Structure formats: structure tokens, C-alpha cells
Amino acid sequence: MIFVSSSCVQNQYIVDSVRELINAGFRNIELSGGTERYLDLERDLISLKANYQLRFQLHNYFPPPPSHFMLNLASLNDGIFRKSIEFCKQAITLSAKVGGTRYGVHAGFLMDFSPREAGKKIPAQKLNSQTLGLKRFGIAWAELELFAKDHNVKLYVENNVLSKKNFETFDKKNPFLLTDYNSFLDLRGECEFNILCDVAHLYVSCTTLGLDFVEESSRLLGESDYIHVSDNNGFEDQNNTLESGSKIVEILQIQALTGKTITLEIYGDVELLQ
Description:
Layout: E1 2-5, H1 14-23, E2 28-31, H2 41-52, E3 55-59, H3 78-97, E4 102-106, H4 130-150, E5 154-158, H5 164-169, H6 181-188, E6 194-198, H7 199-209, H8 213-222, E7 226-229, H9 247-254, E8 261-264, H10 270-273
Helix pairs in contact: 1-2, 3-4, 7-8
């Protein structure tokens, strides 16, 4: 089954993004970040789902919180850590209300930073211990798994994207959890989880770390039944349309994708998304 991300179109409120995607012919919509909170958000989503026979699933930073923050389930800051857990619980609750059966959240980070820095060059700072970050994530995950089970929602952890500029800023130390297969195993050593494999994220991370993209994607896609797809140049996460002959398209053509849930995260022109 193929979904499209609500982040593929740019609107202030999620209701307008969903309507734009409906008008373009889409009915499977992944609700993701990039919009602002408003009073009737839940009511609007339930109404749209019923009126247009939509399938929804939630992803990471949705629904938008009252005040923006950087979601981090590996944070050593108690306030951010607790806020991140409670945010995910709200997402799981809304998932159940709109008929979503899965919720994917990004793996954590070994430092805290602002939402404005997400996806960009993050200023240098001291990194937390990876051991402590992994343990912290494991504690959060155990709590969320129990909560999600009560709401019949399946949880996933999405691999982070490690750009060359962030790798160099942190003296070639990886500031993120779960960027490649080895760090997948590190996180698996702390907790059991399902992986949401973002192929575009993985391509950038492999370029940065000097890893074999074919081998890494084969391993991680083999572990996953839920993937995110877009294209890029291998150096930054660009959310481009898929281009014939690109490395990512070549990988997708040789992988067994039958039975997997795929979300397109192609930003900009709805015609390109179609």
C-alpha cells in the first residue's frame, strides 16, 4: 500500500494539506509535521476521513504541539524526555481515533537542539554518552509500547539521516541513534522495535559514513515492512522526486517490496508526486 506524506504540500493547517491531496486524487495520507495546531484539528480529520474514505497514519511530529520543541526520546534532559514521551502518547491516541494502525517516530539524538536546526547544520556541542542515550531510549520505548498496545497501534522507529556537515561538526562522531545497520543493532541491543526504513535517509548516511549503500539497504529493508521513499544526491535529504537511474531507484528495483507499506515524501509539485 502506498501513502503520501502531508508534508509533501505546504499549508499552515493540516486540514488544508489533506484537502489539497484529496483534490489531487490521493486517499492514503500520512499525517506528518510542518503545520500548526488549531482547535478543530481532530474533528476535521475525522470528518474528512468519513467523507472521502481516507486511510490515515501518523508520523513523528504530528499532531503539532501547543509550543514547538525537538522531539527526542533519547534526551538526558528530564523535561524534554518526559515531554517527548507524552507527545508520542498523544500521537498514538489520535492514531487510534482516526483509524491509523501504525505510528513511526525518529530514533533519538545524543544532544538536544532546536526545531529550527532540524535537517540543517547543528552547532557543535558536547555529545551525551551513547550508552546513556540508548538506555534512555529503551526506557521510553518500553513505556510507549505498552501504551500503543492498549490502543492497537503498531510502533516503528525511523532511521535518522547523518549528513556530512553534521558528521564533521561533531569531529566525525555520530550524534544520532540509528543511522545504519550497525547502529540499528546497537539500538536493538537495548530494546525490541520495528524499523521504519527511510531509504533516502540511509543513502545520505551511507555516503557520509563511507558504507556500501546496496549492502546497508538490503539489510535494513529486510528488517522492515514500512519504508519512506524520496530521492536525493547522497549528500543531503532533499525529498526529490524519483529519477530513473538514481542510486535510490536502482535499490528499490532490486528489493522485494511486495507487502510493504510505502510512504512517498516528495516535496513541492503535486504533479511530480502523482
